[in-house]
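thought: user wants a sequence for this fold. calling inverse folding tool.
action: design(structure=
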């Protein structure tokens, strides 16, 4: 049985709390904002004012890219996400053309157009962009 949830339902309460200000927490907060008056995000780190790595995110200094499905999901939750990422400094890329795939002992994979462009950026840039779009 599927129960439909209406906006601002008094049964749910008026405030939601999300633990973690990473990609999952920010995405959850965005969805919850449609159903609650207040959404509070708690994180062990103080969030920086810029796209800087946080101590509680070990992979925060690694380069990142979003796969097509992840980019599409974030674009659905946060309209304009891709454009805002580029404005913030992410580099557009076509994985089949802009990346070289090598496996030891095999020939280098040919470059092909995969038709799913994405972006190359840092994780802090992704998080900062989502926070910006949340207002």
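)
observation: tool returned 135 residues.
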């Amino acid at each position: 049985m599927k129960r439909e949830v209406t906006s601002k339902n008094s049964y749910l309460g008026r405030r939601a709390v999300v633990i973690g200000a990473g990609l999952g927490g920010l995405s959850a907060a965005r969805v919850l904002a449609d159903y609650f008056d207040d959404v509070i995000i708690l994180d062990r780190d103080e969030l920086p004012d810029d796209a800087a790595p946080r101590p509680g995110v070990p992979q925060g200094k690694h380069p990142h890219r979003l796969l097509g499905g992840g980019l599409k999901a974030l674009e659905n939750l946060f309209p304009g996400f891709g454009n805002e990422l580029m404005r913030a400094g992410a580099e557009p890329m076509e994985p089949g053309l802009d990346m070289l795939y090598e496996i030891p002992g095999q020939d280098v994979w040919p470059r092909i157009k995969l038709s799913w462009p994405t972006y190359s950026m840092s994780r802090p840039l992704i998080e900062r962009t989502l926070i910006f779009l949340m207002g």
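thought: summarizing for user.
answer: Here is the designed sequence. The chain has two domains: 1-47, 61-135.
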